[in-house]
Amino acid sequence: MADPRFFSVAKPMRLAELARLSGAELADSSRGDVIVRDVAPLDAAGPDHLTFLDNRKYLDAFKTTRAGACFVRAEMAEFAPSGTAVLVSLNPYKAYALAALAFYPEPAPMPGQGPGAVVDVSASLGEGCEVGPYAVIGAHVKIGKGCRIGAGAVICEGVEIGDNCDIGARAYVTHSLIGNRVRLYPGACIGRAGFGFAIDKTGFTAVPQLGRVIVEDDVEIGANTTVDRGAGPDTIIGQGTRIDNLVQIGHNVRIGKYCVIVAQVGISGSTQVGDFTMLGGQAGVAGHLKIGAGAKVAAQSGVMRDVPDGAEVVGFPAMPMRQYFRQTNYLARMVAAKKGEKDD
Amino acid sequence: MADPRFFSVAKPMRLAELARLSGAELADSSRGDVIVRDVAPLDAAGPDHLTFLDNRKYLDAFKTTRAGACFVRAEMAEFAPSGTAVLVSLNPYKAYALAALAFYPEPAPMPGQGPGAVVDVSASLGEGCEVGPYAVIGAHVKIGKGCRIGAGAVICEGVEIGDNCDIGARAYVTHSLIGNRVRLYPGACIGRAGFGFAIDKTGFTAVPQLGRVIVEDDVEIGANTTVDRGAGPDTIIGQGTRIDNLVQIGHNVRIGKYCVIVAQVGISGSTQVGDFTMLGGQAGVAGHLKIGAGAKVAAQSGVMRDVPDGAEVVGFPAMPMRQYFRQTNYLARMVAAKKGEKDD
Amino acid sequence: MADPRFFSVAKPMRLAELARLSGAELADSSRGDVIVRDVAPLDAAGPDHLTFLDNRKYLDAFKTTRAGACFVRAEMAEFAPSGTAVLVSLNPYKAYALAALAFYPEPAPMPGQGPGAVVDVSASLGEGCEVGPYAVIGAHVKIGKGCRIGAGAVICEGVEIGDNCDIGARAYVTHSLIGNRVRLYPGACIGRAGFGFAIDKTGFTAVPQLGRVIVEDDVEIGANTTVDRGAGPDTIIGQGTRIDNLVQIGHNVRIGKYCVIVAQVGISGSTQVGDFTMLGGQAGVAGHLKIGAGAKVAAQSGVMRDVPDGAEVVGFPAMPMRQYFRQTNYLARMVAAKKGEKDD
Q1: Which one, of A134, B190, B58, B201, lies nearest residue C151 by Cα?
Q2: Is the pTM here over 0.90, yes or no?
Q3: Which of C3, C224, C244 sits opposite A212 (nearest CB)?
Q4: 3-state secondary structure of B61
Q5: How far is CA B305 from CA A261, B295, B312, B314, C32, in A?
């Protein structure tokens, strides 16, 4: 299904193998040798394709799918058409992700250096690294094994990067220590001096920004996103956290593990974000706050005070979801009543 | 008027010629041979200059302008000073744009490759392309005629680009098919994998993003804007649409033709935007929604549900303009009344 | 304290010298020869360290600090532990900034050109400039003394840059005149054509953007920020103004002196911002407005009308701070009362 100009399928696969690698169970074990050749959406899949049903909303599409096989939750299995082999999974979307990755594995780095790559003599690169054209790697930089450094990326003096990282084209990294399996998208800017200055009548005096950025293992940071280094303490992005495009992370910010930070979010200086927190797109968080673990901040919300663990907040200034809807509903009712009066 | 360090006027022009190319009509046809040498704003224009009046607000400036000629609507013509030749147009701003373009035509690409440009042997470029210094063009890339590829731009394997495109410096394009006369501004990032992963207790599993970005003819995409490729379906930017700087377009988004998307807008995954839609600056749209054709979303609004064709919405969550103003007015009145009571 | 991979302390310093360069006064002049070796936060500082107390909130930490010396306001001096030399200052944070800068001076540019730097024969560079690898400097560009041009930066034809500027890696500058001591962070895009076009039924007609960007002395512009050039008038960034990351400045915008514009702010075309104005993160300002001198726009606010000098506004649409809080408090009270009724 995927455009062969950009993607190539690794190989056809047996359902038994796909069940194994995705942690799913084949409902009819006699179908283990059935072969599928690709993944496809429910409505477009044919007999050669593997698909998935994650959202009840698509149950009708599932009942009539022509797919050769489908990941579903146990309670949906009975609705499968007879031609579709059922792979039972607790998390069909994750199972699909793993299967799709088997069909379309990430291309490995191609070890070597592109034209014009500049690697300082004091820098060290692990085995199997691919350095793109015109990438610039500064003095004393340490890069682990199997990394890909994109075209035109700039890795400044002293930066350390772990194994199997993917540093996007034109990314810029300075004053940072980066873990393993980290992915920076193109144009990301990590480690520049934060927005710190003393103000008086004569103008502004820059305050030297003496911290670093620490990016833990398995983090992804989106395209053209900016992460400022600490002013004294470090700016920290916790393990596994996903940061989308065009996000701003201020100096001294500490983000926990496995957070999801959607596009165009802004987090002001010195704020701490707990583990497993989600920030919706364009949300903003003021400085020096604590956002609790597992909290959810709705898109476009403006957080002006601490958020407890597990709380869901929304609006500007952000308040608990229930309170917010009470207020907006009250206002809508009052105005509707007013309008009713007028219409009489 | 324009700084000669950056702009040069092509040549003096006769009013008859300017009327012809702008679709305007010279009120006094005997002035067809009058020459003007440049464009200028109403208040700064002199006898050698062509100007325009689009907004009634500037009528006084028009009455006293020293401009040699001016584009105006028919009903304004009578207010012209005697020294100003009147060019009557239904759309004076567009007429001015066409005239200004005649004075200041876009410089054509200068065919050839700058220092260090890397073009894969399997890539094909049409006639008359200019490839800037350190641009990197990957395997099997196809680029049409008369394109300009800016310094340090990265065009990845398999990408196809039509004729007369302008790909800005340091732009990054992957997994994309791009039409004719498309303009990408510097730092734009088109076609990276979207923000797609399955979540469970063990963390996140990336879902392979197997779609593309389709950019139709005459689209412009602003500086440092990011457009993610589809997850399976494609992300599509319809013909003629203008996208400003620092905008985020999520995976699978489909934007119609001739839309205007102002700076810092964010559109979440799988949302569809109809033709001729306008999104004001910093507006956000949640995922999986339909924004109708001709709809207008006010600046900073947060759209959480479908918007019908032609509707105007505002606020967070976005609601019809009239409802929004009723609510804000109600609240202002209530508070004012309360204040009155207190002051008694 | 700072990581030696990224920072190095210039030299140990005497308190008398630090008092002199920071404009502070040593409370006990007999301690002028005491030596400190570094700066550190209040709670981490030891006898070799200089620290500061700016915020009363940290008074307890001050009372028990082990720091060798501390900048404080006069009224706090009495709480200093006996081991801590007191440096009295009206602005301890600024004094600290100046001292920290003495310990960690900005590295000077290293004159010369990196590999692959392209400097047009008609360009002129002052003494002591450092041009990074693969930077591209166009025809007739003029650059002053002691500038640093980062790796992969692109400075287009005709641009002029003053003395002692720092142009970040991969920054892009066109159609601009830039003052002295200006700092552009990586990925900033300055001077591209603004979002200007005439609209009619046949689509959009681009209006040539014939102005420039004027960046006055001592301005800083953040990473991946975009500043469009004027359409006819210039876009102007006034002296000393600090612009954070991912900000959008539209065409013809005029920003005064010593403004603070926090990350992800957007300012629409032709708006004027007075001197000493502050715009909080993610705030948006519509086009053709006047924001008065010394005004404060709260984070995420949406400014839809002029703001008087010195006013503080908040919300969407932005209104005076007091009015805004009256409205939000009223709504909260009404809803709480309603809830009370229900609970009865």
Answers
A1: A134
A2: yes
A3: C3
A4: helix
A5: 22, 13, 13, 12, 67
